[in-house]
Amino acid sequence: MGDMELQLTAICLFTFVIHLIGTLAFSVRIAAVRTRKIALAFALFNVLVLISRTCNSFQTPFLAKRLENALQRAAPNTLLSDFRYIILCATVGSIISAILIPTFQRVFSRAVYHFQQHRSMARLLFRGFSIHNLPDRVRASLKIPALGNIREFHDIDRFDLKMILLNIITVALLTVGVFASLYAGYLNPDYRVTASSLSSVVNGFATLLMFLLIDPQLSILTDDVMDGTVSEPRFRRVVIYLVGARIAGTVVAQVLFLPAATLIANVSRLF
Fold it and tell me: If we measure between CA atoms, which residue out of 31, 54, 99, 36 comes closest to residue 247?
C-alpha cells in the first residue's frame, strides 16, 4: 500500500470515528435518562468527544495535503472519487453506530454507575479496557436493535417530522462543509485558501441550526422524561428518528457535495 492509499485510509478512518461517536451521542441521552444522572453521563461522554475532535484535527491537514497532491497531478476524477469514499465512510460509521446504540447505552450506563461509586476516571478507563473480563462484559451488554421500535415509524407526528428534517439538513451541511470547501479549492485553485476558509461559514450555519433549533428541543424532551410527563418509549422512538435522520443526512451530503463545492468555488471569487 502506497503513501497515497495510506493517506486516504487514514482520512476514511478519521471520518468513520467522528460519525460513529457523533451518532453514539444519542445513546448517551438514553443512558442518562435510565440512570437519572444526566450531568455525569455527559461529563463521561466528553472523553469520547475529545477522541472525535482529535480525529477532526488530524483529518483536515490530511485532506489539505491530498488536495495539494491532486493539484500537482491534475487528477480531478480521482480526487472526486476520494471524497465520495470519505463521505461513504461517514454513512457507514453512522449505520454501525446505530446498530451499536442498544449495546453502548448498556455499557455506558454501567460506566456511569461505576464512576459515581469510585469517582476515578483512571480507574474507570483501566477497568473498561482491561482484557481480563472484557469478553464477559461484552457478552453481558450485547444487544441488537429491536425491530419493533423501527416499525413504530408510522406514529410520527408534526413535531418529530420537523426535528427529523432539521437534523437531516444539519448533518448534511456538517458532513459536506469541509469536504466541499476543500474540493472547491481544487475547482478554483487561485482562490483555494478563500474557498477552504468558507467551510467555517457552512459549518457555522449548521451549528446554529443544531444549537438553536434541535438541541434545545431534545433537551426539553429529556427533562420531560425525567419529570415523567413523557414516556421512555416515546423518548426512544424520537431518538430512533434522529439517528435515522443522521444516517440520511450523510446520504444527502453525497448529493450536495458537488453542487456545494461548485457554489463555494464561485463565491470565493467575490471576496
Answer: 99
